[in-house]
């Protein structure tokens, strides 16, 4: 989420991108003292970040009550309902088995020469490769 733009994930992606950049800089700066820094960029795993329908109902009501009329008109309830549906259905496409992530963490902690970047999970690197090597219109289409 921090390496490629994902619709409806602006804030989440921005925070991941900042963490990724921070990790990269720390890896470079701390290497002179023999300190290894590894970043782990997993593919989709079920973590509970998307919340539950009850939580979404509460947040949606609170959001709609606090939005200005202009913003509510610009985005509309359809956008908010679409976001809710998108995030609540996301776990169906995510892996429940976190062992690849745990394995990457274990390797990063215990290896004599840990990798600077781990991408556990099925196809974690594929969207990033498409984003980097294909025209942007191709990535945006998919």
Give a verbal description of the structure.
The chain has 142 residues and is an all-alpha fold. The protein folds into 2 domains: 1-47 and 95-141, no CATH class; 50-93. It has helices spanning 10-30, 53-66, 69-89, 99-110, 126-133, 136-141; strands spanning 39-40, 117-118. α2 runs antiparallel to α3. The two termini are 15 Å apart.
Topology:
Layout: H1 10-30, E1 39-40, H2 53-66, H3 69-89, H4 99-110, E2 117-118, H5 126-133, H6 136-141
Parallel strand pairs: 1-2
Helix pairs in contact: 2-3
Overall pLDDT level: 80
**Count of individual beta strands:** 2
Order of helices and strands: HEHHHEHH
Number of helices: 6
Q: How large is the share of residues in beta strands?
A: under 5%
Keywords, please?
single chain; 142 residues; mainly alpha; two-stranded parallel ribbon; 58% helix; NAD(P)-bd_dom_sf
């Amino acid at each position: 989420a921090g390496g490629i733009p994902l619709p409806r994930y602006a804030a989440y992606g921005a925070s991941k991108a900042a963490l990724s950049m921070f990790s990269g800089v720390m890896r470079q700066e701390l290497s002179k003292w023999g300190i290894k820094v590894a970043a782990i960029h997993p593919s989709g795993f079920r973590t509970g970040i998307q919340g539950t329908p009850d939580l979404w109902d509460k947040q949606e009501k609170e959001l709609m009550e606090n939005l200005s009329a202009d913003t509510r008109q610009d985005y509309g309830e359809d956008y908010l309902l679409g976001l809710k549906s998108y995030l609540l259905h996301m776990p169906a496409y995510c892996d429940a088995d976190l062992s690849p992530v745990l394995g990457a963490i274990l390797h990063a902690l215990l290896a004599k020469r840990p990798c600077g970047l781990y991408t556990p999970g099925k196809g974690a690197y594929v969207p990033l490769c498409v984003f980097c090597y294909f025209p942007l219109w191709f990535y945006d289409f998919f």
